[in-house]
Amino acid sequence: MERVILDPRLKFNYASWYILGLYQYFGKSNVRYDVKSFCELQYENACDLNAGFAMIVEDENKVTKVFIDFEDVAKIFFDRYQWCDVYAMVNPTLEHISNYSKVVAIGPEFGVKIDNRIMTVVNCIIHYWQGRRYNKIPFKLYLRDYLYSIIRRRRIEQYKKPVSQKNNFIFHASTLWYNEFAWTNTNMYRGEFLKACQKAGIEIEGGLYYLGESPAVLKEMPDYTRYKEEYKDFIYQKRLSIDDYIRKTKESLLVFNTPAVCNCHGWKLAEYLCMGKAIISSPLSRELPSPLVHGQHIHFINDASEIYDAIIKIKCDDDYRHQLEKGAYEYFEKWISPEVVIRRILSR
Known about the structure:
The chain is an alpha/beta fold. Helices cover 45% and strands 15% of the residues. It contains 15 helices and 12 strands. The strands form 3 sheets. Strands 2-1-3-4-5-6 form a 6-stranded mixed sheet.
């Protein structure tokens, strides 16, 4: 009988994808938390918490140590790498895959709801208490993380539930981030996508969330205010419920993906694949468990000038759009659904 031991010192909102996969694969009764097996791993600050989490899989014949790295930045945490047998990584580069034998690319994920509200808070307290002697991270950070999963996350079934699509409607919601990469890539691509939708005569809801002009934002990017003029038609300040976000995204004719601020796989890519949407995407620079194929799983554009033509093609060609929708969901089921990710990690 196989069983799994998890380090309770984990960032639940990110780890939930893999915890769900463990429950699906092993059964919840065969997954437990115990810090004693992980004492050599240090948790000194939020960076350690953000790096990922550790687990051990035991059966009659062997013990396998796994570290799941879900950090946005493409870096290897070498103390974790030395500790484990398998280093499962959301955002590896080709160099990581080529030069580090333990690294396996596991693809994008997103936070999901697993338990009800009461059990989520109870688990937060229990897990913190279990790891408290080997943990310098304050309880409030754990509580905030678990509460976020209650408020802003939903069960994976809600993402898969069918919703009628609208023929000439786009919902898009993303944040205007404040660094140089966001200006030249993330924010630029998202803004140009909305401009192209407007040019194509598509009804647009949502837009780009403007963070304001706080000292922290302006210190990092003094000319952040230029977004007010550049994307004046698409600035919005409203925060939607997660339920509205899921429903409106599924109603959209198509969706747009671009790497997030660290050039990483964002949650949106995994959400769109899970929903089975027709996805237009700018180039990806992080490795995947298997390539997303243009025209089969996704529609890639090479630069912003190609976005309008991609929108028109998907809007006017129903067969092509349905092919992308079908391919996206098939990729999700074959490569990145929670249980599949756990299976692939253990196969290493």
